[in-house]
Amino acid sequence: MRTVIQKVKRATLRIDSRVHSEIGEGLLVLLGIEDSDTMEDIEWLVAKICRLRIFDDEKGVMNLSVEDIHGEIMVVSQFTLHASCRKGNRPTYLRASKPEFSEPMYNKFVESIGQFFSGPVKTGVFGADMQIELVNNGPTTIIIDTKNKE
Predict the structure, then answer these.
(1) Which residue of 51, 52, 53, 139 is most buried, as measured by CB atoms within 10 A?
(2) Residue tagged active-site, from 3, 80, 141, 146
């Protein structure tokens, strides 16, 4: 699994120009799934995201998690995170899982983060054309790949 995690002041997700979900301060999590992903990847990644200390404490030091600040989380499926641009200028998405595998894994991820995290968890709609408007806080953007835990 590959994620792009953005610390946001707010985020709004629209489908067909209608607001589908929105969050205030918290994390926008873009999630890419590949065929080799497992429940172990989900569990590790959910714990890592919820415990990331990237919010400022009273001294202005990134020392608090989304849980600590009583923030919110929005999770959006994004197969393009597994794009390969190695050859030519048109990305290929061969590493991205097909919907038959990735949609159930996405749903398990959302369910797991909802069980681990005590705050609100909002989502997009798997496979939909979505527009996301956000205010990146910091800006702080973190990339995590369960196959390259660094």
Answers:
(1) 52
(2) 80
